[in-house]
Amino acid sequence: MKISVITVCYNSESTIERAVQSVISQKDVDLEYIVIDGGSNDGTKTILESFKNDIDILVSEPDKGIYDAMNKGVEKASGDIIAILNSDDFYVSDTSLKKVIDSFTLREVQAVYGDILYVDPRNPERIVRTWKAGKYSYADLKDGWIPPHPAFFVKKGVYSKFGAFRTDFSIAADYEFMLRVIGKYGITMNYIEDPLVYMQSGGHSATSLKQRIKGWKELTRAWRVNDMIPPNALWLRRILSKLHQYFV
Length: 248
Known about the structure:
Layout: E1 2-9, H1 16-24, E2 30-37, H2 44-49, E3 57-60, H3 66-76, E4 81-84, E5 89-91, H4 96-106, E6 111-120, E7 123-131, H5 138-142, E8 152-155, H6 156-162, H7 173-184, E9 189-200, H8 209-225, H9 234-242
Helix pairs in contact: 7-8
């Protein structure tokens, strides 16, 4: 079973090497690595060129945002499974992807997900928060639950059948995609009760209060565009659902 890992980046010279190293060091997997760079003007492209023998597909050109770049990667992927690893994320160990493949082969499912560990951007060895995803239930979905996207691995056929990321969402297209395929279409999933990805705290949706508010509005819209009734106070439910992550 082949897995395609997609990394999208833009001006990521401080973290891209770590992300790439964590992918190409994976053991015992049939791996395709795709990097979609948005036309960086810092040292990102120079770093990526140094790994040209390890990256199967490297694209560097302007795009219409992070989700447009992800869609480019999905379209180019030839693997049975799609993984998306952002440029400031990295895998917990060199066997993270083998655990994913093993889970797919254990039981025929359309997706596998695991846990993530948030790390301090200034000190990646310091874990500041643990996201234990837990087993899925629709009741949790209504309380704002969703798998951590960097640790969410999906059969490519899911994208082909149910669509990729909506580029009319600028912050929460990953949430909308997972809500669509899990909540609306009910894809089958396995949960790996293990951290698979280190994620740098303070991401795309958390850069300012304005961004957070915009993201919360997109959460509600994600339900509506899928003909699902959004739960009352969804943004508050989602905040409350994350509080336990700081005490695990």
